[in-house]
Structure formats: structure tokens, C-alpha cells
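Protein: RING-type domain-containing protein
Species: Phaeodactylum tricornutum
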Amino acid sequence: MHYAVAHDKILRAVKGTTSQAGEELEDTQYQRVSNSFARRQMSQQQIEELEQLANTSNVVLKTHRRNYQSFVTDAILAEEVNFVETKLSTWMASMEKRANRAQNKKNAQATHTGMECCCCFDEVAVEDMVSCRDEGHLFCVDCLKSFAETQIFGMGNLGIDKETKKRSLELKCFHSDGCASGFGRSGLEKALPKRSLEKYDEVQFILSVEVAGLDDIVSCPNCGYQAALQPSQRVFKCPVIDCLYESCRECGEAAHIPL
Ligand SMILES: [Zn+2]
Ligand SMILES: [Zn+2]
Ligand SMILES: [Zn+2]
Ligand SMILES: [Zn+2]
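Structure follows.
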């Protein structure tokens, strides 16, 4: 069995599947995984599903034992378990985030301290909203996330620039007034999960190369983020929030004056 397929099967065995769909399913899975984390062991059902998997797989879990902690005996398997655990904890973190947002929303609505999302018109906690750069149009992170993901995964581009009528090089505000502003980097980082943000960067990079040509592409020496930079600019200010490194375009060292 191919490892990627095996990974998915292990994850499914641990998370479980039901006849539910979408968020409801994820909530059930979240309960199940956090319960087994809390007890430091898996439920009978989870173990049975893993055993079933082991019987149909000749690569993975051949030597698994009943106990979650001690069933790792060989190196390959240890790697597998590590991989799955990392994947699981990433997923747990995103589920926790979602639960927190739901709670924030409840609080905001109860205390009337929220703001109205320009897209779904729900009252949402301000900390879970992102505004467009120039006009301050507020969107809840869920709306921004689904808008951005539809665009980058569905269309493979960042939409049309309303002013130039050409392919936009950044995601534009989707307020119904037809706002021409984009979003700041921090807003995108807040709304998009890592995988989507990477896809966004990739789409933006490809578009930039198409429009600007390879000569104008610079990459941050600190984090590797790539973007188009006007020929007139000598200093590249990395927009990635964890980085913000300023580098010299010519030598790749920290930005220096004189140039
Ligand atoms: Zn919304
Ligand atoms: Zn706007
Ligand atoms: Zn950087
Ligand atoms: Zn330099």
C-alpha cells in the first residue's frame, strides 16, 4: 500500500467517519480524538478499525500492538506514527481555533460587541474579522477564507483587478460596492490555514512572473518568500508576518544604506 494512502487510512481509523457531513462530522471527529488524547488510549472502536487496516495492509501496522504508546517497534512504523500524529495535532489545532471562534461569536452577540460581516451579515467578534486595506470593509475570517479558497483552488488565480480589468496580483476586497482594495498580509495570514496560504503565495508568484517577468522576482533570503519587486526598488521588505526581513536586492544581505 502506498504510504499516502496508508496515512489517510490511519487517520480515518483514529478520527472515525460517520454518515454526517461537513462541520458536524468534523466536530464528532474532534470529540473522538480529543477523548482518546485525554485518556491517552484509543477506544475499542478505534483499535478495531486499526486492526482491520493492519489486516488489509502489508506495509503499515504489521506489528502494531493494542497500546497506542507501545505499538511502535520499528523505525518505519515510528515514522508513520510521527507523521500521523503531526497531521492529527495540526488538525486538532484548527478545530480548536474554530471552537474558539464560535465561542467568541456567541460572546460578541450576547454583549452586542461584534461587528457585521460585509459578506454573511452575521455579527462576529472583531478579533475574528479582517478588513480590506483601504476602505476598512470588515469580513469574518470564515467568509474571507472561503472566498480566497474558491479563488485560488477553484480558479487558480486571484481574480480580476477592477481598475485595470486585468488579472489581479492580489486578492481583492469582495464588498458588494465593488471596492478595489486588497487585503493586508496579516489579514490573509489570520484567515487562511497554512496550506491555503502557501497556495495563495504560489498562485501570486506565478501571476507575478507572468506579469513582471522573472527579472523582477526577488526572494527573501530569510524565509524564501518570493514576490515581484518594481525595478526601481532596491530594498525588498518581506511581507510574511513571522519574517518582515528587509534585504538588499543586489547582494541579498540585510538592507543597507547607502545602497
Ligand atoms: Zn462572514
Ligand atoms: Zn473594501
Ligand atoms: Zn521573509
Ligand atoms: Zn547590498
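Remarks: Residues 117, 119-120, 122, 139-140, 142-143 surround zinc ion (ligand 1) (CB under 6 Å).
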